[in-house]
UniProtKB/TrEMBL annotation:
MF GO annotations: tRNA-uridine 2-sulfurtransferase activity
Active site location: C101, C193
Gene: mnmA
EC number of this enzyme: 2.8.1.13
UniProt name for this protein: tRNA-specific 2-thiouridylase MnmA
Length: 365
């Protein structure tokens, strides 16, 4: 089998490529240049796609004795991931750029080019299992990435290989060291790859400018001010800078973001309780479902798992009634449905219902 190994410059992708070589496949390594200014996108364990990363990927390819190329996807990444990230925050949502990168870059732009060039599949270092088209959680639950892969369609999964799904991260690092790969001890990337300093609010402010507005309670009383509603997410507690303490003395949390009025609504943690979620149209990784069913749903990349009853709306949208209510569910995130460890499909959260008012942003895309 002729495969293209996506090599980010990290330990996971290097070991995934090595295992593809061990399988006897015809392997070519490729590093995706995703930044127009790659020298600015790594600060220690934060960020990725830097010149340093491309050099690390090339050194790994040299050790494995496979051909290696760098493909420039910077413009596509800026349009499909960064611009989408900014637009979603501006609309009052909380996007997941890793999920969007997998959907638009690694398994659309990259996979499309790989197939056009005659490759049979793309190999990546994602921690997830894939067998006979069935996407499942990794054995290393702490590193599982099935959530951010749940946007992939069956025809994309048919041309994907995830060699690390049966291994823990400790085992991957030990294997890299044994193979003489210099990235064996390289820190994992954290946070959002294109915001190397971790300052999401500062990044958004640089893109959208300051937009001063009010922070209010559910009755509309002004409690403070902000430089842009786009800098907040539902469930956020820190960084609110409120001037009026809560009568109860308890912390306040962001309940909703209202982009049209540039208002952030805050309240008690109990007001974040959600028991029903409405989503957009689903992506089914297995067979399409048309009848109601019960499954578990995951609402964030790490955690927020609940059993749920799933029904389809009149226009094919997903409605999830949570059997165990959750707190701080944000629109823009993905709701991923699981049957045990197996991914059923995913949909984007657009509206939540719970203890207080429906948390509907006033600028739905």
């Amino acid at each position: 089998m002729k495969v293209l190994a996506a090599m980010s410059g990290g330990v996971d992708s290097a070991v995934a490529a090595a295992r593809a070589v061990d399988a006897g496949w015809d392997v070519t390594g490729v590093h995706l240049a995703l930044s127009r200014q790659p020298e600015t996108l790594r600060t220690g364990s934060r960020g990725c796609c830097s010149v340093e990363d491309s050099h690390d990927a090339r050194r790994a390819a040299d050790v494995l004795e496979i051909p290696f190329y760098v493909w420039d996807f910077a413009d596509r990444f800026a349009e499909d991931v960064i611009d989408d990230f900014v637009a979603e925050y501006q609309a009052g949502h909380t996007p997941n750029p890793c999920l969007r990168c997998n959907e638009k870059i690694k398994f659309a732009a990259l996979l499309d080019r790989a197939l056009a060039l005659g490759f049979d599949a793309v190999v990546t270092g994602h921690h997830a299992r894939l067998s006979a088209g069935r996407l499942s959680r990794s054995v290393d639950t702490a590193k599982d990435q099935s959530y951010v892969l749940a946007v992939l369609r069956p025809e994309q999964l048919a041309h994907a290989v995830f060699p690390l799904g049966e291994s823990t991260k400790h085992q991957v690092r030990a294997e890299a060291a044994a193979r003489g790969l210099s990235v064996a001890d390289k820190p994992d990337s954290h946070d959002i790859c294109f915001i190397a300093d971790g300052d999401t609010q500062g990044f958004l402010r640089g893109k959208l400018g300051e937009q001063p507005g009010a922070i209010v309670d559910s009755d509309g009383a002004v409690l403070g001010s902000h430089d842009g509603a786009f800098g907040f997410t539902v469930g956020q507690r820190k960084g609110l800078n409120l001037t009026v303490p809560a009568p109860s003395g308890q912390p306040r949390y962001v309940l909703s973001i209202q982009p049209k009025t540039n208002t952030v609504v805050v309240g008690a943690k109990t007001d974040l309780r959600v028991d029903r979620i409405e989503c957009g149209s689903p992506v089914w990784t297995l067979d399409e479902r048309t009848e109601p069913f019960t499954c578990s749903v995951q609402l964030r990349a790490h955690g927020m798992v609940s059993p749920a009853r799933i029904t389809l709306g009149a226009n094919g949208e997903i409605i999830a009634d949570l059997l165990e209510p959750q707190h701080g569910v944000a629109s823009g995130q993905a709701l991923v449905m699981y049957d045990g460890d197996d991914v059923i499909g995913s949909a984007t959260i657009r509206l939540t219902h719970g203890a207080a008012v429906d948390r509907r942003v006033d600028a739905m895309p």
